[in-house]
């Protein structure tokens, strides 16, 4: 499969990249690792006139910690996230998700920013970032804006990024003590996209009840979304299997899966219940640990 | 048709070509450079038959543009043997019958080589995870795993040998 023709540039710094995006507004696509974009180009589902390869832009692939959050550069590969012990110690859900993405070659090159900007409804990061109440940093020639992950994923392959912006960073608030998270992915084969994925991040209060909670779901809607009904059911509740089952059923009711090669919608709804239940249990276990 | 000049070091040799930006790396290797050891299997990033190393990292060359690899070091299956002497992974696949039709073998070997650079002494599980992006439709993987284990042992022994001789002297 051969993509439609396009021009290619590899700017040396972000200022130049942003200038090009502004000059060619609407015609250009940003190329990071390429493992999301190239398949689309080869299928000719995307036919941009210009690719702006950001591989030469420095300083976009680090993972660091501030007093408030973990910051992950947009060009951090899935592999770098998988192997970062400091990140996994604070947010084990990130290692859960990174390890389930694609295969070793894809994790070597695919980046979190690329995946988030691409917004495949079956990609894993968007649900995880919504569960974590993460923010997404977008830079343009005019400056920088920080937007919540919730609300960023508008539709299949559609996000809140403007054509003149580059996604530069993901910011995840540092979890309070007695927090835990888990990502549970159901896939048909090793390395496949999710049939269903459930992301949970939970914080327990001093009274043992659920103080804060985020639940994100992968591949069961036009865009990955936060399972707000399940969150409402659990906030302030005493954690336990019965509550988790009820909330997981609420998540399933809120999901809108489609019949496709991964299975019929009815099956997927049943799997939302199961994967959400497992993620709630695992997150609770980690919050207690 | 606009073309761009690319310069890639392939198996230690600088190679250049004028290519359309949409040309895939695997086609640059096979069609422009005549290195047909790298195979196109599924052409959808699934099967791993096109696996090569780019700047030391394994990559699926059907999912990378030739222009993305401009300036990079690329290693392909043709760069594995040392003259007539097979690389321990090639010898391992031969000895352990790690192939039947052989179509997946170049990618399998390149991915295994990267795996053994990361982890010289992998467990069976680690080997199976390490080659999870490479599909073989003939062998059932059992002999492929044995081939990689044999090569891992030989590469470790080769690494240890100079140290051992120094200690002995």
Number of domains of chain A: 3
N-to-C series of helices and strands of chain A: EHEHEEEHHHHHHEEEEEEEEEHHH
The CATH architecture of the largest domain in chain A can be named as 2-Layer Sandwich
Distance between the termini of chain A: 49 Å
Question: What spatial form of chain B do the alpha-carbon principal axes imply?
Answer: globular
Question: Which short descriptors sum up this protein?
Answer:
heterodimer; A: 289 residues; alpha+beta; Uridine Diphospho-n-acetylenolpyruvylglucosamine Reductase, domain 2; Uridine Diphospho-n-acetylenolpyruvylglucosamine Reductase, domain 3; Enolase-like, domain 1; 5-stranded antiparallel β-sheet; 4-stranded antiparallel β-sheet; 11 helices; B: 169 residues; Ubiquitin-like (UB roll); DNA polymerase, domain 1; 38% helix; globular
Question: What would you say this structure looks like, in words?
Answer:
The mean pLDDT of chain A is 97. Chain A folds into 3 domains: 7-53, 2-Layer Sandwich (Uridine Diphospho-n-acetylenolpyruvylglucosamine Reductase, domain 2), CATH 3.30.43; 64-173, 2-Layer Sandwich (Uridine Diphospho-n-acetylenolpyruvylglucosamine Reductase, domain 3), CATH 3.30.465; 179-288, CO dehydrogenase flavoprotein, C-terminal domain (Enolase-like, domain 1, 2-Layer Sandwich). The longest helix of chain A has 24 residues, at 265-288. Chain A has helices at 14-23, 37-42, 78-83, 85-90, 92-99, 104-109, 112-118, 125-131, 228-234, 241-254, 265-288; strands at residues 7-9, 28-31, 50-53, 63-65, 69-73, 135-140, 143-148, 153-155, 158-159, 166-173, 179-186, 196-204, 210-218, 225-226. Chain A has 11 helices and 14 strands. Chain A has 289 residues and is an alpha+beta fold. The model of chain B has no long low-confidence stretch (mean pLDDT 95). In chain B, helix 2 (88-95) crosses helix 5 (142-168). Chain B has helices spanning 25-32, 88-95, 105-118, 124-130, 142-168, and strands spanning 4-10, 13-19, 51-54, 57-60, 73-75. In chain B, a hairpin with a 2-residue loop joins strand 1 (4-10) and strand 2. The longest helix of chain B has 27 residues, at 142-168. Chain B folds into 2 domains: 4-79, Roll (Ubiquitin-like (UB roll)); 88-161, [2Fe-2S]-binding domain (DNA polymerase, domain 1, Orthogonal Bundle), CATH 1.10.150. Chain B is globular, with a radius of gyration of 17 Å. The interface between A and B is medium-sized, with 28 and 31 residues.
């Amino acid at each position: 499969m051969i993509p439609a023709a396009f021009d290619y540039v590899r700017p040396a710094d972000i200022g130049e990249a942003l200038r090009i995006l502004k000059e060619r507004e609407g015609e250009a696509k940003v190329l990071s690792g390429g493992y999301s974009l190239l398949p689309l180009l080869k299928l000719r589902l995307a036919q941009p006139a210009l690719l702006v390869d950001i591989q030469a832009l420095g300083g976009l692939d680090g993972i660091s910690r501030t007093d408030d959050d973990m910051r992950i550069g947009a060009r951090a590969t899935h592999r770098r996230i998988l192997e970062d012990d400091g990140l996994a110690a604070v947010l084990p859900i990130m290692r859960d998700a990174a390890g389930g993405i694609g295969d070793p070659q894809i994790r070597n090159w695919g980046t979190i920013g690329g995946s988030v900007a691409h917004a495949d409804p079956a990609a894993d990061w968007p649900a995880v970032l919504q569960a974590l109440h993460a923010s997404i940093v977008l830079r343009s020639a005019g400056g920088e804006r920080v937007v919540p992950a919730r609300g960023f994923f508008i539709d299949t392959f559609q996000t809140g990024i403007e054509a003149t912006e580059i996604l530069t960073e993901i910011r995840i608030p540092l979890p309070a003590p007695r927090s835990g998270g888990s990502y549970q992915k159901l896939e048909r084969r090793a390395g496949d996209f999710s049939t269903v994925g459930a992301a949970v991040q939970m914080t327990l209060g001093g009274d043992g009840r659920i103080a804060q909670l985020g639940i994100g779901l992968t591949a069961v809607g036009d865009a990955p979304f936060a399972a707000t009904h399940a969150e409402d059911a659990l906030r302030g509740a005493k954690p336990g299997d019965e509550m988790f089952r009820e909330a997981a059923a609420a998540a399933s009711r809120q999901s809108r899966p489609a019949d496709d090669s991964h299975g019929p919608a009815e099956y997927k709804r049943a799997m939302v219940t199961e994967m959400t239940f497992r993620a709630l249990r695992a997150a609770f276990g980690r919050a207690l640990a | 048709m606009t073309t761009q000049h690319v310069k890639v070091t392939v198996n230690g040799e600088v190679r250049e070509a004028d290519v359309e930006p949409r040309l895939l790396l695997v086609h640059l290797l096979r069609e422009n450079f005549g290195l047909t050891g790298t195979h196109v299997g599924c052409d959808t990033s699934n099967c791993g038959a096109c696996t090569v190393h780019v700047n030391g990292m394994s990559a699926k060359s059907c999912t990378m543009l030739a222009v993305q690899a401009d300036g990079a070091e690329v290693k392909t299956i043709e760069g594995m043997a040392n003259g007539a002497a097979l690389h321990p992974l090639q010898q391992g696949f031969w000895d352990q019958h790690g192939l039947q039709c052989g179509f997946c073998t170049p990618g399998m070997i390149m991915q295994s080589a990267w795996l053994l650079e990361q982890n010289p002494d992998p467990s069976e599980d680690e080997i199976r995870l390490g080659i999870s992006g490479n599909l073989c439709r003939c062998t059932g993987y059992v002999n492929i795993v044995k081939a990689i284990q044999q090569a891992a042992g030989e590469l470790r022994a080769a690494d240890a040998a100079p140290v051992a001789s120094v200690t002995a002297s």
